[in-house]
Amino acid sequence: MTKSKGKHFIKTFGCQMNVYDSERMGEALAEAGYVSTDTPETADLVILNTCHIREKAAEKVYSELGRLKQIKIAREELGQGTTIAVAGCVAQAEGREILSRAPVVDLVVGPQSYHRLGDLITRTGSERGGIIDIDFPEDDKFKHLPVRTAGARAPSAFLTVQEGCDKFCTFCVVPYTRGVEYSRPVDEIVEEALRLVKAGVSEITLLGQNVNAYHGDDASGAPRSLAELLRALAEIPELQRLRYTTSHPRDMSDDLIALHGDEEKLMPYLHLPFQAGSDRILAAMNRKHTRAEYQQLVQRIRGARPDIALSTDIIVGFPGETDEEFARTMEVVKEVEFAQAYSFKYSPRPGTPASAMDDQVPEEVKSSRLQQLQAVLKTQQEAFNQSCVGRKFSVLMERPGRRAGQLVGRSPYLQAVHADGDQSLIGRMIEVEIISAGPNSLEADIVETANSAVIAAE
Ligand code: SAH
Ligand code: SF4
Ligand code: F3S
């Protein structure tokens, strides 16, 4: 065992990819001799894993750093040191600027340098001034991070298979913060999945900024598609469920669509952002598809898997968006009927082409459009949830609920499902009947545990 170096606290903002990275950083720190703690006040090392996607997300980091400064001062009075690191997409985008705006920061580390975290932290102890590592190294960080630990973990896990993005939508910072598109090799992913399964995981969500552009090499060096990767993973017997996110409409290939009809382990849920309904806005966003193409795609996907739950991302108030153009967005929403959706006011991001466009839409207009849009999306989500009442689902029980004796799991359609049951059912696939639906979750009765136990043990 390595000697204890102290306690670490990691706070995660942003997307699932950051959640995954934080987990891997935690594992790397454990190997370097750190243990985790639940509060920054008790931590010798605090890492903020940050998000740069919208202004609000990026600004949160600085208010957080203000709070951490107070904690650092209070700990100093007790003779305790605190190392403060900023990781993630704000680190990558702002680099040195973070050190000048918040001198309390000891280390700025970009998403492609996490395998060097241990060394970087050691250097903060001996070098004056903050340390910055925001290179895009040639080397794959995944290969150099410690292998996933076998300790007990939640039944559902994320697994990053693809990082970066070459699409350059004009509103988006991701190509700048995460770099060019990179796919991990098939064998590396299968090996990681096997480790997760061994540790009790039965559902894996494959992650990528553009996950369906996946084209990782197999053992012979031939590129494999996301559908082929999913098929390989579906062969792991203990792995019961597979999901993937986020997909770009342009990269929904025929084999991937067909897989939704063929592969039982692939869950009937798809997050497929469409961003805007007007073809002029879609072109200005550089989304590389039209409204009609998106709608045809939805039809093809529903042809393969009629009950699929569709989710999406929508931006309102992109520069130049008129009332008529916004009305096109509302039309798409009404035509497609989403089970779930995320919607945002356009936020100008430094260095992106859209931030320099004329005709930025006034804040009040964006707010009113967002309100209209969210009202419709809420109705659709409620209607979808309501349509599930009376149906029987397999639910993967993930954790205890807030109430004693309550369990929380996920339906095949990714809805949160609450049911009363014994804690020993956590980690198992349980048959339930949906008895009522709220806006964000379902209530269920467990109908069969004996059978489900057999299924889980097979
Ligand atoms: N790769 C994914 C999206 C990743 S970012 C895709 O292409 O669909 C997640 C979502 O944040 C985007 O889908 C978009 O809706 C939103 N988003 C990104 N940049 C934004 C900006 N500048 N302002 C508002 N929303 C933004
Ligand atoms: Fe951003 Fe577009 Fe890439 Fe998605 S596809 S990460 S929105 S640039
Ligand atoms: Fe945010 Fe970076 Fe993810 S900008 S959304 S944390 S890729």
For the terminal residues, how far apart are their CA atoms? 36 Å
Strand order of the largest sheet: 2-1-3-4-5-6
Number of strands: 19
Structural class computed from helices and strand pairing: alpha/beta
Structural Rg: 23 Å
Unreliable stretches: 451-458
Largest sheet: 6 strands, parallel
Residue fraction in strands: 15-25%
Mean pLDDT: 93
- Bound small molecules, which ones? S-adenosyl-L-homocysteine, iron/sulfur cluster, FE3-S4 cluster
Looking at this protein, list some descriptive labels.
disordered C terminus, six-stranded parallel sheet, 15 helices, 458 residues, binds iron/sulfur cluster, alpha/beta, five-stranded mixed barrel, binds FE3-S4 cluster, binds S-adenosyl-L-homocysteine
Q: Describe it for me?
A:
There is one protein chain. By secondary structure, this protein is of the alpha/beta class. The protein is 37% helix and 22% strand. The strands form five sheets. The chain has a six-stranded parallel β-sheet with strand order 2-1-3-4-5-6, with helices on both faces. Strands 15-16-17-19-18 form a five-stranded mixed barrel. It has a three-stranded parallel β-sheet with strand order 7-10-11, sandwiched between helices. The protein is globular. The model is unreliable at 451-458 (pLDDT under 50). The structure holds S-adenosyl-L-homocysteine, iron/sulfur cluster (SF4) and FE3-S4 cluster. S-adenosyl-L-homocysteine (SAH) is lined by residues 53-54, 171-172, 174, 209-210, 246, 248, 273, 275, 313, 315, 344, 346-347, 349.
